Amino acid sequence: MDTILSLQHLKKYYATQKAVDDISFDIQKGSIFGLLGPNGAGKTTLLRMITGIFYPDEGQIILDGQPFKPSEDIAKIGYMPEERGMYKKMKIGEQALYLAQLKGLSKAEATERIVYWFKKLEMESWWNKKVEDLSKGMSQKLQFVITVLHEPKLIILDEPFSGLDPLNANLIKDEIYGLAKKGATIIFSTHRMEQVEEICDHIVLVNLGKKILDGSVAEVKQMFKENIFAIETKHLENIIDNPIYTIIRKENNKVYVKINEGHDSNQVLSHFIENKHEIVSYNELLPSLNDIFIKLVESTHATTRAFQNS
Amino acid sequence: MHKIWLIIQREYTTRVKNKRFLLVTFLMPLLIIGLIFGSAYLSTKGTEHRKIAVIDPNGYIKTSLKNTSQIDFEFPDNVDTTNYGSKGYTDILILPKFDSKQKSNYILRSKKSMGLMMQNSISEKINSAIEDQMLQEAGIRQNVLDSIHKASQYAELKAYEDKGNASKESNAGLAMGIGYASGFLIYLTLFIYGTMVMRGVMEEKTNRIAEVIISSVKPFELMLGKIIGIGAVGLTQFALWIILITSLTSFGMHFLPTDIQNQVTTLQQSNGQMGAAGMGQASETAMRIYNMQHTISTANWPLIIGCFVFYFLGGYLFYSALFAAVGSVVNEDPQDAQSLVFPITMPIIISYLITNMVTQNPNTPLAFWASMIPLSSPMVMMARVAYGVPSAVTYWELALSMSLLIGGFLFTTWLSGKIYRTGILMYGKKVNWKTMIKWAFTKQF
Fold first, then answer.
1. Is the pLDDT score of A129 beyond 70?
2. What's the start-to-end Cα distance of chain B, in Å?
3. Would you state the pLDDT for residue A248?
4. Which residues contact B128 (CB under 8 A, 6 or more apart)?
5. Is the confidence at residue B166, as pLDDT, over 60?
């Protein structure tokens, strides 16, 4: 797969802190990429450099094989900031038109696409309404449409689902998958780990301005697995510790074991079979991204105060 | 460039389409004209009438004391300080035995206190009555005296300015009026439109739309687009006001009686002289309207309007950039804006006060310097320009003031652009002017 965006040794120092301190990673074309990190980790600064709002102090951004030139490449990027907003008093149709034109679309082109998207997301009746008349979720939907209207190659979404009900969240999620299938690359920044597990192909975790994790969701989980297995059997009474594994806990017909060093899961399974335990199911327990996140962030002494998991 | 144009368009159309803009634009001229005519009407209606009993033991000024439209002088018998009220007089005036060798006092007693204007007018009437009496005693006949009085009323100062070979009628009163009015208008609009820019920037920041837009355009373009768009709104408003006021006044002329209209036309054609063509004397009203029109026509309007547009725009660009910088650093709390905006409003107010002095005296050193410094030049220079170029302000002074103002607004725009691009994306931090200046002069982003 081709790389659409490559960050090479990006640095951005403020007077009081190193917001981004030598971060490099690549993003593949058509992938859904998760940029994770606690509040204040440097995510927003990183995203603002990718969107051309800030210039990096050092390092390079390669977009689509070429060094990033904000003035020209802005049209290739769609950015939906975390704190989203719009002109409250402006009519929604006019507002979408204005923002699309600022991205370089002609008026006719912009109108056509707005009509298409409004129809698709059941927003046709909104054209003459004002933003102040919309609920938070509705304005979120509008913001999403505005972000993707100019068909950017790279779509950056900062917390796109906050405030959306499950129905609308699914609607947007499907659109995100659809856009990725059509070849757009999506950078997805969020605190919500279950959404990351569900949606993202690849993740990068940053904290205190540094990259502390980089890999596909499956790889990361493998990286942090602790060789814990759950075995469901009819009888738990006579299962006891032995050299192959250590019992962590027993509950609801399940025993959770940690495989000891030098042994593998097949040996555990053989041991159970040899001892005539009747096995109903046998799974490896992989850590959730949430667990990995908390573990890594806490070990780098960052604030996890605002980290939410709901 | 195309994007800046889009921003200007949005800023302009959303404001011009706003109901409040239309209301202010159309009501303001009506309000001003209403105020002028209303106060004129009240001042003729609201005057009081006095009936004064004069006690003149020698009957010295009985024949020469003239009544005015507001004051009736009477010389009754049997009236003294105890009973003048009950005899129907509002005041009593007691003259001493007159002696031309020394100054003497006359006494006025009133039931109701008297305004300064009326006291002055009484004093003037009595002195001129005494003067007449003395002239008559000196042997000048009444009819000669009358013709002298008449002649003195027709003499009037007409000042001319010599410019090379040509000389031009000048009018200090008009210059003062124009200077004051344009200074005041610029003062008002700097506040109105400057605040509008600040609010616009604050709205974009608190709505967090700034970040969306800044991912499409440069912060400087967004700021400049807003300033230019709102400036265009201001120019539109002025243009509409001028059109409305001139059309309202010419419309008002049609309500004058036909004979007065004809008289005014004749006066215009004959350059102020009522011809021997047999139309007779022009009425007082026609004369006054003609004089007003004539006075107004003596000013160099193209120059004044040209300078006004320049200084309005220059002053607006100079200050609105600073207002934009303040708007960009304010967080949700509008209270912050108040304290930050103080260093900007202060020079505007001081300039306005200087302007008031300069309208009376356009050539003091203070007037010169204040009309050069871009902080105050938009208002002060207008007050001086009204007195005429090059007679009050030389060409090089005007050119220097204008180039300094251009340099000034380029500087404030540059400075504010630096502050703006840091401030507009900065949330939750309280900022003061010291930090803002630091942002402007250190590398950011």
1. yes
2. 23
3. 84
4. B64, B66
5. no
DSSP B101-117: TS----EEEESS---HH
- Structure tokens given for A130: 């004002």
**Average model confidence (pLDDT) for chain B?**
83
Q: A-chain residues within 8 Å CB-CB of B203?
A: 87-88
Rounded CA separation A246/A52 (Å): 53
Q: Which of A169, A204, A222 is the last residue of a domain?
A: A222
The letter for the amino acid at A286 is L
Q: How many CB atoms lie within 10 A of CB B332?
A: 11
Backbone conformation region of residue A187, classed left if phi is above 0, alpha if psi is from -120 to 50, else beta = beta
A85 vs B: CB within 8 A: yes
Evaluate if residue A197 carries a pLDDT over 90.
Answer: no
More confident residue, B200 or B392: B200
Sheet holding A3-13, edge to edge: A18-28, A3-13, A58-63, A66-67
Residue A231 and residue A160 share a domain: no
The percent of residues above 70 in pLDDT, for chain B, comes to: 89
Is it the case that residue B277 has pLDDT exceeding 80? no
Distance CA B322, CA B409 (A): 10
pLDDT tens digit string along A45-94? Answer: 888 888 888 888 889 999 888 898 877 888 888 888 876 678 888 888 89
Distance between CA atoms of A37 and A35, rounded to whole angstroms?
7
User: What is the distance in angstroms between the Cα of B328 and the nearest Cα belonging to chain A?
Assistant: 16
What structural domains and CATH numbers belong to chain B?
A: 50-144 (3.40.190.10), 173-441 (no CATH)
CB contact under 8 A, A99 and B216: yes
- Note whether A140 and A251 are same-domain residues: no
Report the pLDDT value the prediction gives residue B196, as an integer from 0 to 100: 92
Residue-level pLDDT at B164: 59
Helix (H) or strand (E) holding B260: helix B258-269
Same-domain check for residues A108 and A213: yes
DSSP output for B137-150: HTT--HHHHHHHHH
DSSP one-letter code for B405: H
CB A22 within 8 A of CB A59: yes
Residue A294 lies in a domain: no
- What's the confidence (pLDDT) of residue A1? 59
Q: Measure the CA–CA gap between A243 and A229, rounded to whole angstroms.
A: 15
Residue A68 at interface with chain B, using a CB cutoff of 8 Å: no
CA–CA separation, A5 and B233 (whole Å): 43
Q: How far is residue B53's CA from residue B108's CA, in Å, rounded to a whole number? A: 10
Flag whether pLDDT at A147 surpasses 60.
yes
* Total CB pairs under 8 A between chain A and B: 59
Single out the residue of B65, B59, B71 nearest to residue B130, CA to CA.
B65
d(CA A233, CA A247): 14
Please tell me the predicted confidence (pLDDT) of residue B161.
Answer: 67
Domain range for A278: 226-285
Query: Is there a domain that residue A66 lies in?
Result: yes
pLDDT digit string (tens) for A207-216?
A: 888 888 888 8
Same domain assignment for residues A42 and A156: yes
Q: Which residue of A has its CA nearest to B3?
A: A102
Burial class, B269, CB count within 10 angstroms (exposed 0-12 / middle 13-18 / buried 19+)? exposed
Distances (CA, A) of B370 to A181, B182, B351: 66, 16, 8
| Same-domain status, A239 and A217 | no
- With respect to residue A59, please indicate whether it lies within any of the assigned structural domains: yes
B7 contacts A74? CB cut-off 8 A: no
- Pick B162 or B312 by higher pLDDT: B312
Q: Is B212 on the interface with A (CB under 8 A)?
A: yes
Domain count, chain A: 2
Residue A160 and residue A143 share a domain? yes
Question: Residue A69 class from Cβ within 10 Å (0-12 exposed, 13-18 middle, 19+ buried)?
Answer: exposed
